[in-house]
Amino acid sequence: MGENIEKKSVLLIIGGGIAAYKSLELIRLLAKQGIRTRAILTRAAKEFVTPLSVASLTGEKVYDDLFSLTDEAEMGHIQLSRSADLLVVAPATADLMAKMATGQATDLATTALLATDKPVLIAPAMNVRMWQHPATQRNLTTLKDDGVMTIGPDEGDMACGEYGPGRMAEPEAICGAVLDFFQKNAEKPLKGRKMLVTAGPTHEPIDPVRYIANRSSGKQGYAIAAALADLGADVVLVSGPTRLETPRGVTLKSIESAKDMLAACEAALPVDGAIFAAAVADWRVETESDQKIKKRDGQLPHLCLAENPDILATVSTLGKNRPTLVVGFAAETQAIIENGKAKLAKKGCDWILANDVGIGTGTFGGDENQIILLTDKLVEEWPKQSKEAVARTVAARIATYFQGDDV
């Protein structure tokens, strides 16, 4: 497998505009994605953000002086411009764009941009009239012809009091563009593979206003779907009711009940791999009332329960439509490994990802998870980590499996 996003690095060139303060949030967002950032400040940028504030967020020395002998000895401007995987200019002022378009090298920022052999992404930011000026638009056309990527500017109120296009794109959008670039250019070990993921709870209706459910948030399943899509897989996500956004590049099929989930999973087949992260309700009310069950003093309603379809076992024991790899989850509150092994044997799946969802663990609804990977050959305990980190590990192991390496 090729390098993942966590090993990527960005050289951020901060231009001298009021939007420079947004670069600090951009650095934070990139760091959350595991992307290393070095920064160059133009002389004008230091009027808006300080080298100390930038350095405290990047954890790296901030560069600003083209003629610093120390910097030249440690990392010359040529090496600095080529040591990153991507150069990002944010904000890209009208002056910086003009210098880039005409090939000027008057300071460290423009010298690095001229000397680089790496891709460049700019986030323009300037007064609306400056943005609309023919000279700026000519420079923009030149830069695009040279292969420079752009994001924004957005339309809105300006610091100068005017309104129109010229606001720098928000840090979240710039971070998203950086991630999209890396993902599009990264090795995609699951490209051409179709994956099915289930997530969230199911709601089993009692009457029009009540239902049986559980505490699952869907976060782990959604994160796994996103991680598989990042590795190039064509992902169908069958999800019970959640408040989560659909991950980029993922096809969402929303359902309510366990019966609905099974039908949606069967409709998605055939797939190469299926990961059943949903917390499906084991039981449903045998006969759903079509009217609200009224409360009667001293009388409790009698609910007859029926067993829901076992989606994991059903898919695991299919004939020719069985996925090559079937992964189930075992949400347990005691004897995690023993119960997980029993589920592996009973369901007929290939892997079980067992986890402790007992009171106090914070797994259901929380942002962290601790997984024990169980197969017929191994028991592998993973450290407690974010659900996104768990998802990336799961996706990487699945990619390894499909590359022919047994787990």
TrEMBL record:
Q: Per the database record, which ranges form the Flavoprotein domain?
A: 8-181
Q: Where is the active site?
A: 160
Family annotation (Gene3D superfamilies): CoaB-like, Flavin prenyltransferase-like
Q: Which gene encodes it?
A: coaBC
Q: Which residues form the DNA/pantothenate metabolism flavoprotein C-terminal domain?
A: 190-400
Listed name of the protein: Coenzyme A biosynthesis bifunctional protein CoaBC
Q: What are the BP-aspect GO terms?
A: coenzyme A biosynthetic process; pantothenate catabolic process
Q: Which organism is it from?
A: Sneathiella litorea
Xref: InterPro entries:
CoaB-like_sf (IPR035929), CoaBC (IPR005252), DNA/pantothenate-metab_flavo_C (IPR007085), Flavin_trans-like (IPR036551), Flavoprotein (IPR003382)
UniProt record similarity statement: In the N-terminal section; belongs to the HFCD (homo-oligomeric flavin containing Cys decarboxylase) superfamily.
**Lineage, opening ranks:** Bacteria, Pseudomonadati, Pseudomonadota, Alphaproteobacteria, Sneathiellales
Cofactor annotation remark: Binds 1 FMN per subunit.
Q: Read off the HAMAP family from this record.
A: CoaBC
GO cellular component, as recorded: phosphopantothenoylcysteine decarboxylase complex
